[in-house]
Amino acid sequence: MEYEDKEGKQYTTSDTVSVPVWQELKPRISKIQKPDFVEANMPTNISFDIYNIGKAQLRNIFVEVVGDNVIDQQGETYLGNLSEGSDTYFDGPFYLQQKVSKSNCCYKVSGRCRK
Questions:
Q1: Can you give the residue range of the structural domain that contains 103?
Q2: Is residue 112 scored above 70 in pLDDT?
Q3: Are 97 and 42 in contact (CB under 8 A)?
């Protein structure tokens, strides 16, 4: 930056300005692949793809299968980090306490990114 005082003396200086930029996180998942039928207390798996369609890295991704009848043997599954424009795959086992069909599924998949 250049300027001069009222007597005409010239000055030059420089400075740095920091501007914080926040990028929205944009994780997306594919359709969850699940079995047509699940027997009680028998292991079963669900699987899906996770896509990072945002412009920022997703860090410390965890996935957990939860529900009223779910016995999740693994608890939370750590998937790591996912850079922008990339994808990863989840295939997780769990057990149900009662027999269910695909039409009356009683579980959900939750996920979160941690700092």
A1: 26-113
A2: no
A3: no
Residue 27, both tokens: 């994780």
What's the domain count of the chain?
1
- Dist. CA 60–CA 93, nearest whole Å: 20
Convert the pLDDT of each residue in 44-89 to its tens digit.
Answer: 888 899 999 999 899 888 888 777 777 766 678 888 999 999 999 9
Task: Indicate the pairing of strand 107-113 with strand 58-67.
Answer: antiparallel
Residues of the chain with pLDDT > 70: what percent? 82
38, 95 Cβ separation under 8 angstroms:
no
Distances (CA, A) of 105 to 11, 44, 62: 73, 13, 22
